[in-house]
Amino acid sequence: MASEHVAGGNDWRDYLLAVSVALGLAAGGFLFAQLLAVPLTLGLLALGFPIEGAVSYTLSTLLQGAAFVAFVLGYMRYSDSPRLLDIRWPSLSRPRRTLRDIGWVVVGFVVLLLAAQGVGIVLDQFGFAPGTNRIESAARAQPLLALSLVVLSFVATGPGEETLFRGGVQGVLRRVFSPVGAIVGSSALFGLAHVTALVAASGAAGVWGYVVSTFVLGLVLGTLYEYTDNLLVPILVHGGYNALLFVQLYLVETSGLGFLAP
Questions:
Q1: Which of 83, 165, 186, 212 is the most exposed place for a label (fewest CB within 10 A)?
Q2: C-alpha closest to that of 212 among 186, 188, 184
Q3: Cβ atoms 205, 129 nearer than 8 A
Q4: Cβ atoms of 206 and 129 closer than 8 Å
Q5: Residue-wise pLDDT tens digits, 109-152
Q6: Are 226 and 182 in contact (CB under 8 A)?
Q7: In this structure, how many other beta carbons lie within 10 angstroms of the beta carbon of residue 94?
Q8: How confident is the model at residue 1 (pLDDT cuts 50, 70, 90)?
Q9: Plot region of 45 (φ>0 → left; ψ -120 to 50 → alpha; else → beta)
Q10: Which pTM value belongs to this model?
Q11: How far apart are CA 141 and CA 144, in angstroms?
Q12: Residue 213 scores a pLDDT above 50
């Protein structure tokens, strides 16, 4: 990753500071999104839109993604960390490098699918099947919402969550921790952060199953970022994975068809 992300020669205070900043970024990103959601919620209610409706979910998802990106960019500016994010856009002047990145997007997408299916099977054997996400429940009740979430996976969820957890959290941890330590740390926070997205009916087993599943997916995404030095790769892989899940959800709810194991 970028030269700013170098482990070694640090004492316990450096590790403690990095962990504290990483925790602050993860918690602060969600808090910032919640604060921005207050006027949005009040405005939607004033206009007569239900909080559990498709319009509300669409706008809140878009807002959260934008809030995560804005929060990390704000941290970069005020902490003098201009090289925290490693992102590389496709370039016709560097075709081999661009093709390499595209190849890693494809490979990462396949690996993420296999990892999700594998961890789902293992968790199910131990009675820890992942619980139900709030937005998944909403999309099941309103299948058209699933289609809008396909687009939002690429323009909001993927960019927002990857900027916050891989770019921000993993980037900060990578300054003092080894690549493995930074990936594991950011993935753990990524998994725990999704607890609030579960519906109450999931129960304790469903909550921990979801956390473990998300943690494993975070390991894949974090490894992709560390290896490629390009945040755009995990953004596209994450967005593609979520989009595929919402496409399947729409097909299941409208026609009973599905192509991934539950």
A1: 83
A2: 188
A3: yes
A4: yes
A5: 999 999 999 998 998 888 777 777 788 888 888 888 999 999 99
A6: yes
A7: 12
A8: low
A9: alpha
A10: 0.93
A11: 9
A12: yes
Whole-number CA gyration radius for the chain: 19
Contact status, residue 186 vs residue 22, Cβ threshold 8 Å: yes
